[in-house]
């Protein structure tokens, strides 16, 4: 009787010493589990019961499916329960991270045909330089050719001899860029540099943090698929005739994504000031709709970016 009592007391003490698992969420919504107990094994399940020793071992961050609850426990090596249960519900993933196609600019161009053309051009041209973005990039110049070009001469001047490919799409948001990168646009390519500027079209529907998360996800996608490429991440350009809430959100996003500089091949550069007057306004000579650069605006963009771009192309 005394031996049994001793075992029960020892078991209770052991249980009390081990902590309940804790968790944190990554930018893409996945759940990362931790335990403060050295040597403990974390097991988890999405079933409507607590995990037992038949549940899978936690090895990497997981996505909690919609309508499910993640339940996790820490176990001793021999499989005895050692902690209370941690329950984590699903988090709604912001739209900036959900890869989708789009057709918002259907009156002006065919999104699918542009995607198909870019995939084919990539196979034929094997570009050294990629420009990835929305209409601000789309309207600049280069191939695939578009009827709405605003800065073709500037493009030819700076990039005509550099084997560059324009992966800009009118009205694209971060989620649309993610879809394109995941569906063939950069497969098999080995560019030296990718210039990325995206997010302004998310400003009306997403928070600054959500937009920044989408941009970070794109940088991660580029780095994973093009490990040898340098990523020149540009701050989102200012927009609007005068400083307002939209411009303030853009600036807030830029403050967040500036922290990506130096990580996973990313170099961050904000050239937005070249579009602004002394009072913070935008002249129609630089952006005639206060969003898309004119030829003068594209010249300012290219000139401001050139020193950094040269350095990256040369591998410095």
How are the strands ordered across the major sheet?
8-7-9-10-11
- Total helical elements: 8
The overall number of domains is 2
Helix content: 25-40%
How many strands in all?
A: 11
Proportion of beta-strand residues: 15-25%
N to C succession of SSEs = HEEEEEEHEHHEHEHEHEH
Q: Give the C-level CATH assignment of the largest domain.
A: Alpha Beta
The CATH architecture of the largest domain can be named as 3-Layer(aba) Sandwich
Topology:
Elements: H1 2-17, E1 22-25, E2 31-34, E3 41-45, E4 56-57, E5 70-75, E6 86-88, H2 111-125, E7 129-133, H3 135-138, H4 152-159, E8 164-168, H5 174-182, E9 193-197, H6 208-225, E10 230-234, H7 245-257, E11 266-269, H8 295-313
Parallel strand pairs: 7-8, 7-9, 9-10, 10-11
Antiparallel strand pairs: 1-2, 3-4, 3-5, 5-6
Descriptive notes:
There is one protein chain. The protein has 316 residues and is of the alpha/beta class. It folds into 2 domains: 15-91, Sandwich (Immunoglobulin-like); 96-313, Rossmann fold, CATH 3.40.50. Helix content is 32%, strand content 15%. It has helices spanning 2-17, 111-125, 135-138, 152-159, 174-182, 208-225, 245-257, 295-313, and strands at 22-25, 31-34, 41-45, 56-57, 70-75, 86-88, 129-133, 164-168, 193-197, 230-234, 266-269. The strands form 3 sheets. It has a 5-stranded parallel β-sheet, sandwiched between helices. Strands 4-3-5-6 form a 4-stranded antiparallel β-sheet, with no helix packed on it. A two-stranded antiparallel sheet has the order 1-2. β1 and β2 form a beta hairpin. α4 (152-159) runs parallel beside α8 (295-313). Residues 1-16 have low confidence and may be disordered.
